[in-house]
Amino acid sequence: MKALLGLTLNELYAVVESLGMQRFTARQIADWIYVKRVRSVADMTNISVSNRQKITDEGYEVGYEDPSDAAVSTDGTIRYLFATPAGKHIETVYIPDGDRATLCVSSQIGCKMGCYFCMTGKQGFNGQLTTTQIINQIFAIPESKSLTNIVFMGMGEPLDNWDNVSRALEIITSAWGMAWSPKRVTVSTIGQMQHLTDFLRDSRCNLAVSLHSPYSDERLSLMPVEKAWPTSTVLDLLRQQDWNGQRDLTFEYIIFRGLNDDSRHAHALIKLLSGLRCKVNLIRFHAIPDVELHTSDIHAMERFRDILNEHGLTATIRASRGEDIYAACGMLSSTKR
Ligand code: SF4
User: Fold this and answer.
1) CATH class of 69-325
2) Are the CB atoms for 190 and 211 separated by under 8 Å?
3) Element (H, E) at 71
4) CA-CA-CA-CA torsion sign (301, 305, 310, 311)
5) Alpha carbon of 42 to ligand 1 centroid (Å)
6) Active site residue 252
7) CB of 156 shorter than 6 A to ligand 1
8) How far apart are CA 260 and CA 281, in angstroms?
9) 75 and 321 in contact (C-beta within 8 Å)?
10) Whole-number mean pLDDT of the chain?
11) Is beta strand 249-255 parallel, antiparallel or unpaired with respect to 279-284?
12) Where are the chain's structural domains?
């Protein structure tokens, strides 16, 4: 079967035209899928019975895939698994927090980028998620209608799957789709320069850049991407953008004990990001097997945060969520546990 969920309006136009239907039928289908959220073509009641029949006869269905498993953390975080045809798993993390409910979606099965501290990176790369598989993570969870924010911070480097991620962003933010404000959506990248320009041009969503060290050699030891696309190149591009109220720019900084948590690093970070309207998110490191790194304690994190704040660089410590169910940052894996 072919899924309609995950098709953009232009792709729906192509489908209905190929079936000999009027173009406006595509808008009706988009409305049924993305606004009314029906799960069956039969429920699209303002489309004629014969056209609905034609759509299903041609092998189309709405195409929901329900999660195959879910683990619930003591803090309310839920880690959902979606099975893939190749026997791997897509992980999606639902994070309720007061009146916010954030969904952390995956964009790839595994990842090519090989960051030393990341469980997903250790799995290697097992394929790109289709737009349908990305959008399905949002629609098929029971809490879907209560979501307030979506972050592309699950498995994979989103900009390394730009074709499908860009279509997903279009569906989330277009008036014919979910009609979300782009301010509710954040795309995370380690600085994938091949598509960062595309993202900045084509999307108004927020951007989070994983930095983790202000020093190039040290970052290279943590993140091989530093060799191909050094931080300096990424920052040069970001400095050409207007960040004043357009969208949020955040730098993610996992804080490792004895490695990047001292005042020397804090001051180097302040210097590196000077003049950029941005904030820094400090993230506790979540231990993973065979990685000789440890998180800083809360006092060191607060000291680091305070230095940044005192020098005008807004910094916050991100609350750790879902560690007991392996759902926290850097712990996602395409292998079922
Ligand atoms: Fe890939 Fe992100 Fe993990 Fe790096 S941190 S290996 S980019 S998923």
Assistant:
1) alpha beta
2) no
3) strand 69-72
4) positive
5) 41
6) no
7) yes
8) 14
9) yes
10) 95
11) parallel
12) 2-61, 69-325
Is 329 a residue of the active site?
Answer: yes
In CATH, the number for domain 2-61 is 1.10.150.530
pLDDT at 110 (0 to 100): 94
Mutate to test the pocket of ligand 1, among 112, 118, 189, 334 (most ligand atoms within 8 A of CB): 118
Q: 227-231, 243-247, 291-295, 331-335: which range is least confident on average?
A: 331-335
At residue 243 the predicted structure's pLDDT band, cuts being 50, 70 and 90, is: confident
Q: What tens digit of pLDDT does each residue of 96-148 get? A: 999 999 999 999 999 999 999 999 999 899 999 999 999 999 999 999 999 99
Residue 207 — φ and ψ, nearest 5°? -125, 135
pLDDT, tens digit, for every residue of 42-56? 999 999 999 999 999
Round to whole Å and give the CA distance between 166 and 332: 22
Pick the residue whose CA is nearest to atom 4 on ligand 1: 115
Residue nearest to atom 6 of ligand 1 (CA): 121
Nearest C-alpha neighbor of 164 from the set 225, 124, 108: 108
Is residue 334 lining ligand 1, measured as CB closer than 6 Å? no
Give the whole-angstrom CA distance, residue 176 versus residue 9: 7
Of 104, 118, 205, 329, which residue is the catalytic one?
329
